[in-house]
Specification:
Distance between the termini: 54 Å
Number of helices: 6
Mean pLDDT: 79
Strand content: 15-25%
Order of helices and strands: HEEEEHHEEHEEHHE
Shape: globular
Largest sheet: 7 strands, mixed
Structural class: alpha/beta
Radius of gyration: 20 Å
Amino acid sequence: MSLQRTRKSILSVAALSCALALGLAACGTTSSLQAPTDDAKIDLTPYSKLLVEDFKDEATARAKPEAQPLLKPKLDSAVKMFPDQIASVVKAGGGFDAVTRSGVADAQTLVLRGAIVQFDEGNAALRWIVGFTAGNANFDARLELVDGATNRTLGTWVVDKNSWALGGGIAATQRPEDFMQEAAKKIGTELSDKRKAGTIRKQGQ
């Protein structure tokens, strides 16, 4: 095989690898932790404990009435699974003396609470055949970091994830549960890192 053909083969493999990496990743975003105002900074050093509460289900009420009976059991599971996943990532990353899923908050406790706003499995067949957002799977959530003593909001995250817009086989396999797990990993890792670093400033400062 000539050197030119070898180079073409390498480039083709690299391009295919990039395409697969993009396809396996969901579209949309999970924001970074945002302070409530432009001039706000948050000192996390006083907090040695993290309490991760069960989340609220706001998705079922937003769904079509005929979809709600099938959707509610999934949300009943998701509102516990999502915070479970975040708590597990934070525990693994360190930064807090204790990470719990229940209990009473005090002045040394950060409380993480949130709501799942959209949980839509979409239509895998449409994603495979049509693409271009047809049959998209979606997972949206809103999270809030709160002072355990004052109940004051210290920061927020927004999750807005959906299946790969171009469709095809990879998009057909993407599920809200996958997006939830990706978001939990990012949020849990960031929270652990920020606690160890101490201070959060509004992005851009």
